[in-house]
Design brief:
Order of helices and strands: HHEEEEEEHHEEEHHEEHEH
Number of domains: 1
Helix content: 25-40%
Strand order of the largest sheet: 7-8-9-10-11-1-2-3-4-5-6-12
Strand content: 25-35%
Number of strands: 12
Distance between the termini: 22 Å
Largest sheet: 12 strands, mixed
Mean pLDDT: 87
Number of helices: 8
Low-confidence stretches: 3-24, 261-267
Amino acid sequence: MPANRFFVAAFALLSVFAANPLAYGEGLRIETDVYVGDEIESVSHNITLFDTGAVYDFSEQAISGETTQITVFRPPTSSRPGQFILLDLKTKQRTEVSTKRISGLMKKLVRWASEQDDPLLKFAAEPTFEQQFDEASGMLSLESENWQYQVATVPAENATMLARYREFTDWYTRLNTMMHGNPPPGPRLELNAALQTHSVVPVEIHRKVDSQSTKVRATHLFTWRLSREDRARLDQARRYLTSFEKVDNEAFLASRAEEEVVRGQSK
């Protein structure tokens, strides 16, 4: 598995607004850039919008700013499992992945990793960190022999949104693990738990895994409101949900793999 994929794979209509309690402007917007090593250009750029009942993550080309994929997360409830809907803007296809399926696969992955000789896999299956948090500076560290996080944080402005942020990030981490063949998501889940415990959100995360020479840095810009432009993005994403062709997971991934080959040949 290439190192970059390991690390970077890593992280309503007006009638609807009138019917629900979330007033115009409220919500959460996160802008994320990921950098590998000492590079000054980000390798990925995402805009994540938290709306009532769902989270929309827009993956953009780091240089052009063109949106290439939208991931919609509908959290699980007491009566139904949660769901991710992946929208490919190039092929105009969508596919659905239930949190029940993801959870089952993660259990199998953790069990398999815990039985391996590789110390990194064993740690990711059952991570244990020494944690320190400096309330004055907002610096949070999770340290172990195999894996380290150094995180600059700021206080969360909304406890409800912080809980939603953790739920989304937990599930999104599991989804990326499944999609990209990453090690078990335990280390990032531990970080997410620590952030909620201290009622903070990350503005910059430095991650180092000792078996790899490359460090990864992620920056996050939190805005505790949604703008008119954000609302327009959400409206467009909802139109894609109804108009894109629904395909199974295998066909969706095959189309994306073919896109990557064509893109590589054109460079």
